[in-house]
Amino acid sequence: MSFFSCCTSPQEKNNKNSSKKNIKNNRDICFKSDSGKRKYLEEEVTKPGNGNITSKIFSYHELCVATKNFHNSNMVGEGGFGRVYKGRIKSLDNKVVAVKKLNRDGFQGSREFLAEVLILSFLHHSNLVNLVGYCSEGDQRILVYEYMINGSLEDHLFELPSGGKPLDWNTRMKIAEGAAKGLEYLHAEANPPVIYRDFKAANILLDENFNPKLSDFGLAKLGPTGDKTHVSTRVMGTYGYCAPEYASTGKLTTRSDVYSFGVVFLEMITGRRVLDYSRPSEEQNLVTWALPLLKNKRKYTSIVDPLLKGNYPMRGLFQALAIAAMCLLEDGSARPLIGDVVTALGVLSKRHVQVGKQKHSNETCDEHGECS
Length: 372
What we know:
This protein has twelve helices and twelve strands. By secondary structure, it is an alpha+beta fold. α2 packs across α4 (110-122), α6 (169-189) packs antiparallel against α8 (254-270) and α6 (169-189) runs antiparallel to α12 (338-355).
């Protein structure tokens, strides 16, 4: 079968159409920086009883209590927006949450805060992190999320602590499929579509069962509508993950996210960071190093994360690398839609459940990729 054939059932299409109706009203959201749009967004966020905003509004005092005045002992991470703290909200039955506080000297600011509040208030999916609430009191900008006990995908791929257990192959495929489903929801079900623009391992959070959820929507951008093919915008995101055509022209499409997905998927397969300056010069850029190897199936096993210790299905490896290669095509229009990637990964993950108990040594492949 073709790994990128259309396999959407009539029932799935009906479900997607229903979802589109539920969120169609977000068409008017725009995240431009001009003062008129900024004022509109501020009014949307702070407007009492706004039916479009489902998240809870917290006072700064309540979040200080929840995090013990944002004490360092409660800090669980730090990103472009600011520091993230673990806390407990008394008014929500001591619910454990992650509290992200804007760093006023940081790269991201009020515009990204407003974008994230609006996007996560309108859009809900099992593979998007749930926004519990926010605080926009005075000059404070704070986001409150569900707490993801297993941290980020980045935490489990790179620089594991002593005695840390690496993710097994099946779990990696499960995470890849779930993260792709999150992108599919943004691209195909949100109306207008949303381009994530900052897809990377650090932004994929994992719950207690290692189910992935996309987080950090401050750089998200509404995609093209009607007969438009792209949106033109200032180049944003994380170096190494940006699609080449977006980085060079500022023209953004949903296929830009597909490229970023391919980079992260390659990180998951290889256990290497997209940029690692501790390696020899020819290996510092993951994509530059890997692409020539992806053209030679005899080299495939040399790409795999050594922490897997050979515990992966050879056929699954070939197919996973084929998916990554398609996502990383230089020509954006030739890349698959993320929905096709989800279909391919779904087939792959189901097959892994079936072959996961087989020994890796029982499966062999020739130079043409035929496995037995």
